[in-house]
Amino acid sequence: MNIPIKTLQCFLTLVETENFTRAAQKCFITQPTLSKIIQRLEESLGETLLIRNNQKVELTQAGQLFEHSAREILGQWHRLQEDMSNLSGLKSGRLRLGVCPMMSSLIIGLLTSYRKRYPGVELHMYEYGGFGCEQALLNNSLDIAFTALPTTHETELVNQPLTKYPLLACLPEGHPLAEKDHLKWQDFQPYPFILYNEDFSLAKLINRLSRKAGVQLNIAFRSGQWDFLAAMVEADMGVAILPEPICNRLSTSKLVFKPMQPAMTWDLALIWRQSLPLTPAAKALLELSKQKTEG
């Protein structure tokens, strides 16, 4: 069986887009060409990998198995290319970096320094929630990722802590809880709670700590956008918990922020897969982050 790397790339692009037209555009080929590539792949394997319909493309059981292997193979190929191109130092390459949307504004300084120091490295950034970053690392689709601790796959991932920020209760002006100096988990019980999407590390942290305190939050809404979440609080649709840097950006809004007791922190870190060596480009980012943290 001889399957070109290009075929694997086309197959995974099709899986991600779930559409032949969009996948062909991303692969810079025509749709009939992509259809022939997938057909030859299925004939070579002797298995149907995709279920085709007018709405979208779905994976068969064989397709799911092949997708996992294809990601591993492409990940290893990417790492080989990186190692070979950087034998004499980090002058070129590609860094596949995962970033949680809420963290993006907090890591600009580090990424700016990285670009200046390694201008030949292509930076490919992918936005995921914390759990999405973990899955992409385990699928070998990323080299390294920014996320919040703790991770779900603790035994399979390594982390380098970066910084931590207080987590504050976010309330609309005039809310009954706004009169308190600090808030406890029990204070939230009578009120609707607005939480992040389920794949966000911060959502998992809030759920874990509230349950530990014996409190079942009344989750009314979820959002993956901190500004929309804050807007819902301001509209008196519920209360929330936000990291201090986000609260500082909302200082002109009609919101009140209160510390939690016991205090909670949002711990940011770089994470990568334990069973795989870091690529030279990822290792350079990690080293730079250590220098800035220690400095």
TrEMBL record:
<protein>
    <submittedName>
        <fullName>LysR family transcriptional regulator</fullName>
    </submittedName>
</protein>
<comment type="similarity">
    <text>Belongs to the LysR transcriptional regulatory family.</text>
</comment>
<dbReference type="Pfam" id="PF03466">
    <property type="entry name" value="LysR_substrate"/>
</dbReference>
<keyword id="KW-0804">Transcription</keyword>
<keyword id="KW-0238">DNA-binding</keyword>
<dbReference type="InterPro" id="IPR036390">
    <property type="entry name" value="WH_DNA-bd_sf"/>
</dbReference>
<dbReference type="InterPro" id="IPR050950">
    <property type="entry name" value="HTH-type_LysR_regulators"/>
</dbReference>
<dbReference type="Pfam" id="PF00126">
    <property type="entry name" value="HTH_1"/>
</dbReference>
<dbReference type="InterPro" id="IPR005119">
    <property type="entry name" value="LysR_subst-bd"/>
</dbReference>
<dbReference type="InterPro" id="IPR000847">
    <property type="entry name" value="LysR_HTH_N"/>
</dbReference>
<keyword id="KW-0805">Transcription regulation</keyword>
<feature type="domain" description="HTH lysR-type">
    <location>
        <begin position="3"/>
        <end position="60"/>
    </location>
</feature>
<dbReference type="InterPro" id="IPR036388">
    <property type="entry name" value="WH-like_DNA-bd_sf"/>
</dbReference>
